[in-house]
Structure to design on (145 residues):
């Protein structure tokens, strides 16, 4: 089972960007934890991709069609604006879980609406780096059924 973990804009700055909201963990730290946790599932392979560019994220989702069984995505700021990413997720028809480090429903009003979640099987928000681990667990269990 192959899982693609996609991260959107500014997540490459984790660890230094607004630590009061996002914590001090880096994206590399999160990726290492995901890889370690993935070992608890038989036959799960993980690939990571991060981009600050919407078109690159769309391209990666489109290229995932025949390569991956599932996607975990943190679209970051594109969550609230990207019909293109939402449409790409729908188009490839790969089960996708949306992740957010912070609780988007407890933040500014504009962050409370997720366009991309409409194309996902579920959303996990507000648990920091553990949201990725929960997303992996949920996605693997979904794909096994």
């Amino acid at each position: 089972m192959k899982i693609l973990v996609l991260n959107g804009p500014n997540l490459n700055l984790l660890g230094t960007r607004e630590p009061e909201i996002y914590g001090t963990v880096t994206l590399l730290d999160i990726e290492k934890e995901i890889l370690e946790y993935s070992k608890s599932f038989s036959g799960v392979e993980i690939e990571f991709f991060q981009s600050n560019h919407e078109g690159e994220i769309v391209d990666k989702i489109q290229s995932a069609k025949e390569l991956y069984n599932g996607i975990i995505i943190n679209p970051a700021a594109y969550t609230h604006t990207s019909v293109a990413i939402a449409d790409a997720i729908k188009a490839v028809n790969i089960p996708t879980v949306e992740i957010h480090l912070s609780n988007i429903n407890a933040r500014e009003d504009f962050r409370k609406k997720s366009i991309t979640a409409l194309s996902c099987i579920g959303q996990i928000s507000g648990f920091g780096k553990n949201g990725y681990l929960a997303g992996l667990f949920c996605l693997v269990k979904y794909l096994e059924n």
About this structure: The mean pLDDT is 94. The helical segments are 19-22, 27-38, 54-63, 83-92, 130-144. The first strand starts at residue 2 and ends at 7.
